[in-house]
């Protein structure tokens, strides 16, 4: 998606360790016009697929999933990372390791929001090693839902997440795939 790539080049900040910071437009401050185009692009790429719900992980994936959901006319469910007194007791759970935060956390989805046989599209902002997606896939397997595919805004192509998912036969649509930077310059695959 050329518009996204241009925005990454303009406003993305490459930090030590090939960490791409896009918080000025994607996952802290949100450019709604850009997100709207991202939502349209996900709908275009998954057009013709039967999708009952979109599933994401809190927090950065929520805005993207909600914008995309309006084009599919489906609800969004998000896996919670934090426990809450308002969270249902009957949940699907999976443990996910975050390399960014250097810790594991449990993600949860109330069972009443995922019904066996539903067709689910997973959406998130980043894909690196794929651990968040693995956790969501685990939850879908527990629920008996069908994985339609995965949509990510930015994939780190030099890490194994995308490769591993594709090798499993999972449909993965990444709007921008970043190559490992050289000399501090952002490159796309």
From TrEMBL:
Q: What is the enzyme's class at the highest EC level?
A: transferase
Q: One GO BP annotation here?
A: XMP salvage
| Listed SUPFAM superfamilies | PRTase-like
Cellular localisation: Cytoplasm
The entry marks the following residues as binding 5-phospho-alpha-D-ribose 1-diphosphate, namely 128-132
Its cellular-component GO annotations read:
cytoplasm
Single GO MF descriptor: xanthine phosphoribosyltransferase activity
What pathway is it annotated to? Purine metabolism; XMP biosynthesis via salvage pathway; XMP from xanthine: step 1/1
Q: Which CDD domains match?
A: PRTases_typeI (cd06223)
Q: Write down a Pfam family by its short name.
A: Pribosyltran
Name the EC number(s).
2.4.2.22
Q: What role is this protein assigned?
A: Converts the preformed base xanthine, a product of nucleic acid breakdown, to xanthosine 5'-monophosphate (XMP), so it can be reused for RNA or DNA synthesis.
How does this polypeptide assemble, per the annotation? Homodimer.
Q: Which family does it belong to?
A: Belongs to the purine/pyrimidine phosphoribosyltransferase family. Xpt subfamily.
Its recorded name reads Xanthine phosphoribosyltransferase
């Amino acid at each position: 998606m050329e518009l996204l790539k241009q925005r990454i080049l303009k406003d993305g900040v490459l930090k030590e360790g090939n960490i791409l910071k896009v918080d000025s437009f994607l996952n802290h401050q949100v450019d709604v016009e850009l997100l709207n185009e991202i939502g349209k692009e996900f709908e275009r790429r998954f057009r013709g697929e039967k999708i009952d719900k979109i599933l994401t992980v809190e927090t950065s994936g929520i805005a993207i999933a909600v914008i995309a959901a309006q084009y599919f006319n489906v609800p969004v469910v998000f896996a919670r990372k934090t426990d809450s007194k308002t969270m249902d007791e009957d949940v699907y759970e999976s443990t996910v390791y975050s390399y960014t935060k250097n810790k594991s956390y449990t993600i949860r989805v109330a069972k009443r929001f995922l019904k066996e046989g539903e067709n689910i599209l997973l959406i998130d902002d980043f894909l690196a090693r794929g651990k968040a997606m693995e956790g969501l896939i685990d939850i879908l397997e527990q629920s008996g839902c069908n994985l339609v595919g995965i949509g990510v805004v930015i994939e780190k192509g030099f890490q194994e997440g995308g490769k591993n998912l594709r090798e499993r036969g999972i449909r993965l649509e990444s709007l921008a795939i970043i190559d490992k930077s050289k000399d501090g310059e952002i490159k796309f695959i």
